[in-house]
Design a protein that fits this description.
Immunoglobulin-like; ten-stranded mixed beta sheet; five-stranded mixed beta sheet; elongated
Amino acid sequence: MNHTRNAVSMRRIFTIPLLFLLGCFLAVSLITPSLQSQSADIVPYAPAPPSGPTSGYTNISYNYTIYSTDHTAQWMFSWGDGTQSVWITVTAGADRITLPHQWTTSGTYVLQVQFKDQNTTGVWSTPLHITIAQQTTAEYPHSPRLISGAIQGYTNTSYTYWITATDPNQNPLQYRIHWDNDTISAWTTFTASGTPLSIAASWQNAGTQTMLIQARNTLGLATAWSPIASITMSPAGRPLTHIYRLSVNGTDYALELPSDTTARLRNTNSTAVTSVREIEPGTYLLDINGDGTWEYTYIPDTGVLTAYNPTHTESFTIPTIPLLILLIVIGIILVVVILFKLGILYVEEVPVNKK
């Protein structure tokens, strides 16, 4: 009897753990498909679209940027024209990737980016739609001009030059300069169409130097290089006639400032010479058309040309205080004469006794 009871007891002891393990196995079997189903429903993270222009013109390069602080991830750009970039990693210490691209035909393109890392490949970003048009000649900026600056001066001396251009659609413009040593400056910041922009330049070597200007609008349309501006520099200390180029209403003038004679303004397209007067050190009045009227004020050091207001012709002036005294005396005489005429003021005759 005792042996039988022990056998029954042992069966109970082993049955309970087996039932527990069987229940866990069934639970796991039921939960796993559910987790797999939920995992399949999770959509991988879609990165933000790249930033950059959403419109432009054919055969012009535009820059597009994505931002990332994960230096292990790689990125690919799909340009929407059937081409893609290679996989690119953010450079150490940087937080973005910028790539240029240009489209050869007009149309609307869908730009997207995709990322991947060691464990996963993300989906393509939301699209950035870009409209590319075929540019026409009429949409390009007009040729830039040098409107003010020294074309004859001293070496190792800083001179201020003013340049400008206009855009047919009033798009803002930026400029760059091609210097005589075959170097090209970086593009300037954008300024309003037709607004003059100043740049400073100096030359170390004596002789004739050159300057060319190019303008570009916000759509990337650039002008051809401007006509060459020749600039002659001489060693400092040598007697020299400073010559400044001025462009007024489309006509070019040369302001000549000799060191020992009177300044003059010369029309570069004719032999006409007009008046110049220095009203204070470094500031000159200009008579552009030679009619005896000062139309502009010019400061060579800064290159600033402004309309002279009010315009006036040179005339003889009488000192103010003597003129005031004269007017007072004439007024008194006129009052006395009027009083005599009205009988208010008269001279009484007094008889004189003769002895």
